[in-house]
Amino acid sequence: MWNKDNIKVSIKAKKAVIYQKKHGKACTGTELTLNLHCKHYKFILNMVNKEALDTLQKYGIHPSVQRIAIMDYLLKNHTHPTVDEVYVALCKVIPTLSKTTVYNTLRLFSDHGAALMLTIDEKKVCFDGVIVPHAHFMCKRCGKLFDVALPESLKDFLPAGSDFKVDEAHVYYKGVCKACAMEA
Ligand SMILES: [Zn+2]
Ligand SMILES: [Zn+2]
């Protein structure tokens, strides 16, 4: 079980890397302690023990600083963000973050069932922190992605007695949203 001390250790290790990059030398204990007051540390620590951490634990994902921050973003932003959107939002508070890390982390969440990877738009892959089964509607004009309740008739995708074990199912609709239809 992961607790606050595990997270603190992980954050300290991350801070040491940032310090070394910035100052070109490894930090001593005192410098690290002083450095902990920075925005980045406070930002992450504020989130510890909250929903993001609980979610990672629930799905058996080791909670590193970056993973907590990315899960926190997904849970607070039900906007079906892309890798770029998550990266732009978080790179200011986590200077060591890279787009590759964001992509790998979101893929990891998806593989563990902690988030959904949506491929409705072939030009951009989106991620969803809402894992309750629901369908998606993509507007072909503005490109926005909307959540749609799954019709009762589609809740059972496979006939009873099927040999397949379903881990995830996706229902995508494409068309024109209300706002775009009114503009036409
Ligand atoms: Zn639209
Ligand atoms: Zn959704």
UniProtKB/TrEMBL annotation:
Transmembrane segments: none
Ligand binding (Zn(2+)): 139, 142, 177, 180
Main location class: cytoplasm
Cofactor(s) required, per the database record: Zn(2+); Mn(2+); Fe(2+)
The organism's place on the tree of life at top rank: Bacteria
Cell compartment(s), UniProt: Cytoplasm
GO terms for MF: DNA-binding transcription factor activity; transcription cis-regulatory region binding; zinc ion binding
UniProt cofactor note: Binds 1 zinc ion per subunit.
Gene3D superfamilies referenced in this protein's UniProt entry, alphabetically: 3.30.1490.190, Winged helix-like DNA-binding domain superfamily/Winged helix DNA-binding domain
Residues annotated for Fe cation binding in this entry: 152
Keyword Repeat carried by entry: no
Keyword Transcription on entry: yes
Alphabetical keyword list: Cytoplasm, DNA-binding, Iron, Metal-binding, Repressor, Transcription, Transcription regulation, Zinc
GO terms (BP aspect): negative regulation of DNA-templated transcription; regulation of secondary metabolite biosynthetic process
Gene Ontology CC terms, in alphabetical order: cytoplasm
Family as reported in the entry's similarity comment: Belongs to the Fur family.
Classification via PANTHER family: PEROXIDE-RESPONSIVE REPRESSOR PERR (PTHR33202:SF8), ZINC UPTAKE REGULATION PROTEIN (PTHR33202)
Protein name in UniProt: Ferric uptake regulation protein
